[in-house]
Amino acid sequence: xxxxxxxxxxxxxxxxxxxxxxxxxxxxxxxxxxxxxxxxxxxxxxxxxxxxxxxxxxxxxxxxxxxxxxxxxxxxxxxxxxxxxxxxxxxxxxxxxxxxxxxxxxxxxxxxxxxxxxxxxxxxxxxxxxxxxxxxxxxxxxxxxxxxxxxxxxxxxxxxxxxxxxxxxxxxxxxxxxxxxxxxxxxxxxxxxxxxxxxxxxxxxxxxx
Amino acid sequence: xxxxxxxxxxxxxxxxxxxxxxxxxxxxxxxxxxxxxxxxxxxxxxxxxxxxxxxxxxxxxxxxxxxxxxxxxxxxxxxxxxxxxxxxxxxxxxxxxxxxxxxxxxxxxxxxxxxxxxxxxxxxxxxxxxxxxxxxxxxxxxxxxxxxxxxxxxxxxxxxxxxxxxxxxxxxxxxxxxxxxxxxxxxxxxxxxxxxxxxxxxxxxxxxxxxxxxxxxxxxxxxxxxxxxxxxxxxxxxxxxxxxxxxxxxxxxxxxxxxxxxxxxxxxxxxxxxxxxxxxxxxxxxxxxxxxxxxxxxxxxxxxxxxxxxxxxxxxxxxxxxxxxxxxxxxxxxxxxxxxxxxxxxxxxxxxxxxxx
Lengths: 209, 357
Hints:
The complex is a heterodimer. By secondary structure, chain A is an alpha+beta fold. Chain A has helices spanning 18-27, 62-66, 92-96, 132-138, 150-153, 165-179; strands spanning 4-8, 37-41, 49-53, 72-74, 80-82, 160-164. Chain A has a two-stranded antiparallel sheet. The radius of gyration of chain A is 19 Å and the shape is globular. Chain B is elongated and about 120 Å long. The chains are: A alpha+beta, B mainly alpha.
């Protein structure tokens, strides 16, 4: 079985937010919840970079560790999912998650938390794959259809990669061989451009990159 | 050829000697003159490393200028490193210590009870009763007590239920139980500061520490041995519990209110801290309540009457609250000289006990 992972290539992300929109549309996520978001650091400054963030499907997930009702489980594909019929909406997973993935629709009096919602790696939930109940509660189950998460599938610059960890790291490794870990190495960092001679990009390797 | 080689060698050795001399001279000079601060003319960072370090928010430096189009709490924070610390604290430290304390203290109290037994009223009950807690006092006490027991039970279920209740009832049934606990805890929790405030206003005047309280504490409250301890309306132990209730109650209430209303834009770090503080304060509160309940029920003969009926036995009052007893009966000497006699004209109406006879 695969070990599913996301990887966002900061050198390619152009902050178009298409992944956010695609996810919201595909999974029909609750109002006020964004399973994926694009965070831009140093916006408008030299060295600006954007990264698309969602649940990273940790091998040792903090959310699962602190959950008082043990509603999380990891699928055979390494995807961390949760059972909304077990979740009580306490918010502890939100405190523990490093990526801010778990979110809560406002429900009931005083805007108390409803059932937690987070990225499912487009793998649905514990309901029957492809059933109406599954789609209503968890969104699409593209993995069951042999497809990868829509956010990564429709990323226009292929910054966001989703799939088996070995394949993802292989693609990224080829990119690093071609261009270095960061294009800032090329001397296009305008902050430091006067200090170093611009280098021509290294010779391209055929194939992915 | 050998000449040239020799001359070259000579030149080389001369150079080496000169170099060594220079180096040693420079070392000597450096040893007296402090070296200039090290500067790097050209900063050559690894941009990718810097990026990920900034994202991970490790190390000192200006706060990361991050933004996002998603408008949620902390959405602009890419990685929250404190989440893992919170998880480690909760699972490894807090739950372990809290578990041992919650189980250990009742066992310790039970052992103490087996060794010490119930603190009896010397000479038994007199059958005459003195009014101690009016209806209002008992109402706010039992309001707080019932609320406290409910909040403690629901809170402990949420804390330990995954390991204690879930294996018994299964995940589906436990989810219903935990959900009810969470809703009940959140619904009735905000009432607790009201209860604490009522207790504070009603009893604060009687809980100002007095000189005799330190003597009481030094004698251990008379619970070990049969030393006579003097006390007013509240003894030092009761005063300590009163102030514990006030302080822990306020801490638990404030931290709880931060958690129960997630609508004021408070971030994850604040909520983590609030949950940690809430846990420590309430576990201390629960453990303290075990002691309070023990002393008020099986630990001491006659104590429970005060909160149950509002009246206490005269003999109990004389032993445990002699100064208060003297104030109520109005004659200190009378107490000392004739323990069983009083001044009916001066004392508030007494009731002859029929149910406790």
